Amino acid sequence: MAPRPDPQADVRFMREALEQAASVLGRTSPNPAVGCVIVKQGRVMARAATAPNGRPHAEPRALEIAGKYAAGATAYVSFEPCSHFGQTPPCADALIAAGIKRAVVGCLDPYPPVRGRGVAKLRRAGIAVEVGVLEEECRRLNEGFITRVTRRRPFVLLKMAMSLDGRIVAPRSGGWISSAQSRELVHRWRNECDAVMTGAGTVIADNPRLTCRLKGGRDPVRIVVDASLRTPPQAQVYRLRSAAPTIVATIEDNAERAKQRYSNRNVEIMAVRGSAEGVDIRALMRELGRRGWSKILLEGGAHLAAAALHAKVVDRVAFFIAPLIFGAGMPAVEGIRASNAIALAELRARPIGPDWLLEGEPV
Ligand SMILES: NC(=O)c1ccc[n+]([C@@H]2O[C@H](COP(=O)([O-])OP(=O)(O)OC[C@H]3O[C@@H](n4cnc5c(N)ncnc54)[C@H](OP(=O)(O)O)[C@@H]3O)[C@@H](O)[C@H]2O)c1
Q: Strand, helix or coil at 168?
């Protein structure tokens, strides 16, 4: 007999599964970050998350820890268990074989080979399945993966720091606009995204590193969008030591020249179709999606931000508003005509130290 449902316990254990998933965010592409918790008679027998690079999945890892105690237990899984043979056998089969009697699933997987089939397989095997516990949080955690499989490109988070009057360049060079607390949040995002992207203008002006400076964090891949190869090869982003490479995304005509110009071992050249503005941003995003990358943090200047918004590849804007009024300087977005104004579905605001973070999704 399946264990009796207990809505409060379901939420509590799903939250634990979500915590597991969150701990590996940014490390599991091309697969989603999933958490699995096995519970028997109210006690946790195992907790596990998807392994680095996406394999093994969370469910077989948790089942291995639970061993014989999985029989008759409830499995809490933040994302629908897979039902198809990919690089690993189906997780739904593993749950069935282990004798799981009840499964609580956070959200369904929109990936066509799975999409509801994992849950159907469990039900056919006589497992009691409940779907949708903490559904919104489970979806949001894997918004990158969901965007990639439904839109064939990564989720793009456009981050900018600005004064109250919308200027993104501090009058004194070297000065930060946003607070230490805001910058720490950005480092957390770098830690969770597959890649961070910026434009040639920002590399020339700021010489950023674009690494993750959190204790225990890991560097994302860095992508510099540079159509005419204006960025100097001695820029920090091309010279720093990092486990992740820096990619120069340039137009096809300049790819060979780029290979010679940026010959550092840790730099890769990506040739992308050109557009009137330089690199075709949509084509670039599609290529990043083909590589299995799910989430990109866009930290460009005003021109790259405008190009990405105009190309409709931005899924969320995150604007940090600092308590400063500059009165002059570069605006946050440069080059969108008023007739092409971007609307956001809603705007959420929260304080981060002395700053306000405004977030919203373009419609
Ligand atoms: N406060 C903040 O959050 C923040 C964040 C980042 C930067 N910034 C500031 O922004 C300033 C730089 O802004 P920016 O607008 O000059 O530089 P940017 O947006 O970082 O880079 C723009 C450059 O990228 C290249 N590019 C290639 N393809 C493109 C495309 N499709 N669309 C747009 N650009 C493309 C172009 O150079 P090529 O034609 O040569 O390829 C273009 O000039 C700096 O002063 C920096 O401090 C502020």
A: coil
Class of domain 152-360: alpha beta
* Residue 59 falls in the annotated catalytic set: yes
% helix / strand / coil in the chain, to the nearest 5? Answer: 35, 25, 40
Provide residues with CB under 6 Å of ligand 1.
160-162, 168-169, 177, 198-202, 205-206, 225-228, 230, 275, 277-279, 281, 299-304, 307, 330, 334
Catalytic residue among 59, 80, 192, 299: 59
Q: Where in the chain is the domain with CATH 3.40.140.10?
A: 7-146
Q: State how far the Cα of 176 lies from the Cα of 317, in Å rounded to an integer.
A: 20
- pLDDT (0 to 100) of residue 174: 66
Q: CATH topology for 7-146?
A: Cytidine Deaminase; domain 2 (3.40.140)
Three-state secondary structure call for residue 331: strand
pLDDT in tens, 12-60: 999 999 999 999 999 999 999 999 999 999 999 999 999 998 999 999 9
Location of structure tokens 């900018």:
160
The atom of ligand 1 lying closest to the CA of 307 is 32
From 303, 320, 352, 358, give the residue whose CB has the most ligand 1 atoms within 8 Å, as the site to mutate.
Answer: 303
- Residues of each domain in the chain carrying CATH 3.40.430.10: 152-360
Mutate which of 160, 162, 168 to test ligand 1's pocket (most atoms within 8 Å of Cβ)? 168
- pTM strictly above 0.90: yes
Q: Give the pLDDT of residue 200.
A: 98
Residue of the CA atom closest to atom 6 of ligand 1: 301
Query: For residue 16, what is the enclosing H or E element?
Result: helix 7-22
Please tell me the least confidently modeled range out of 77-86, 94-103, 179-188, 345-354: 77-86
